[in-house]
Design a protein that fits this description.
single chain, mainly beta, Neuraminidase, five-stranded antiparallel sheet, globular, disordered N terminus
């Protein structure tokens, strides 16, 4: 029996209309707090969507050492009874490196999570499972990387690819003590692998041999093939956002979305987001170049990676943690975390028109800039409304919360 969680308890929170002037797009919304399918304590939410509904996944703490990767589907305004993808006392749980569940080709459903290795610390790897029955049962987990090193493997993005999915991850195999008798370069790499529905994997591919150590990646499928965005790392420790496209069976050389020139000697743990609307790509990201925090967006034609000059979106003190969503009318919505004093913060959103015009910012919810608050996520349901998920740390223990965002214009 597939019981559902009733949403009769929705509470209207706010109606907001934001626009800058007659030439700028409006962002008029109404917000409804939805009962969350996630119990407490829970965190690390992720959202994906298909023509059938929105999928929410999260990690739920069952005991102080045991976690479950759970998921639920929003259909016709109601969350299905949560299902369990995997459980264990060896999950690698990290506020910034979160699991995912998303639909794939031929009615398949895919999930990934992270599992600790025997050496502890940052010895952990990616596990991928497939379901052909809507998440009732799952395949045995599969590991896309075969190096076998006790190093970090994570920050995964998955996307539809051919008759299966493509998996992109940050791979720390060059962080071992030595390689072929020589000191290891201690450089993070970006790698890719496809797996077909039914479990047949393709070869492993190196996308970029030196990237930022622990920033999230993101991916979107365009008519010209998948596009992946990530934070690069040059020899001079410039860590700007790059993009690459899967074209004719190969990944193109990464190109800079914009040369911010952010020189930083460590990872900011703040990756980019990418989406497509109409015939345009949008990449949103955080940068701290020149010691000034900013959230930006840059647009490009979907068939190319030649980005226009970026547009600044923040309100002066962003913490980053961006997400971006493409709408059917060609507009984009970008969310980010804006600090409001101390560790208090708000999740804010702007609409960006295809010509680059932007709306005023609206606040979706209060939050925190503490690490435990994680990365708010947004997705669009088949009825056109938006779903936002975030980790609420205002109560103890923390819990994944959901807000429904209705676009009024």
């Amino acid at each position: 029996m597939n019981k559902r969680l009733s949403l009769l308890g929705w509470t209207l929170i706010l109606v907001v209309c934001a626009c800058q002037d007659a030439g700028s797009p409006a962002l008029s919304i109404s917000l409804e707090e939805m009962p969350s399918p996630a119990s407490s304590p829970s965190g690390e939410p992720f959202l994906s969507s298909s023509e059938d509904g929105v999928y929410l996944s999260w990690l739920e703490e069952v005991t102080p050492t045991m976690y479950e990767l759970r998921f639920s589907m929003l259909q016709d305004g109601e969350w299905n009874k949560p299902g369990v993808v995997a459980a264990g006392d060896d999950f690698f749980v990290n506020w910034a490196d979160f699991p995912s569940v998303l639909p794939g080709p031929q009615g398949s459903l895919w999930a990934h999570w992270l599992q600790r290795g025997s050496e502890g610390g940052y010895d952990y790897g990616v596990r991928v499972a497939e379901s052909g029955d809507g998440g009732k049962t799952w395949s045995e987990p599969w590991t896309p990387h075969e190096d076998g090193t006790p190093t970090e493997h994570g920050f995964v993005s998955m996307m539809a690819s051919g008759s299966g999915i493509g998996i992109v991850w940050l791979d720390g195999r060059k962080f071992v003590s030595e390689i072929d008798g020589e000191p290891a370069p201690r450089e993070m790499t970006l790698r890719f692998r496809e797996i077909q529905v039914g479990g047949k994997p393709g070869p492993e591919t190196l996308i970029d041999a030196r990237v930022c150590d622990c920033c999230q990646t993101d991916a979107v499928v365009t008519p010209s093939g998948p596009v992946v965005v990530y934070r690069d790392r040059t020899d001079a420790e410039i860590r700007d956002i790059y993009a690459t496209r899967f074209l004719d069976g190969n990944w193109t050389e990464g190109v800079s979305v914009h040369q911010d020139g952010w020189e930083i000697g460590g990872c900011p743990v703040n990756g980019p987001a990418v989406a497509m609307a109409g015939d345009q790509l949008a990449v949103a990201w955080f940068t701290g170049a020149e010691d000034v925090p900013r959230v930006k967006i840059a647009l490009a034609r979907a068939e190319g990676l030649e980005f226009e000059e970026p547009i600044q979106l923040d309100d002066g003190d962003p913490a980053g943690r961006v997400d971006v969503l493409g709408l059917s009318n060609g507009d984009f919505l970008v969310s980010w975390l804006e600090r409001t004093g101390g560790e208090t913060a708000e999740v804010r959103m702007r609409r960006i028109r295809s010509d680059g015009a932007i709306s005023e910012a609206v606040t979706i919810t209060s939050s925190s800039s503490a690490r435990a608050s994680g990365f708010p996520r947004i997705a669009q349901s088949p009825d056109g409304s938006l779903v936002m998920a975030w980790t609420d740390v205002s109560t103890s223990p923390a819990q994944v919360r959901i807000t429904r965002v209705h676009l009024e214009d």
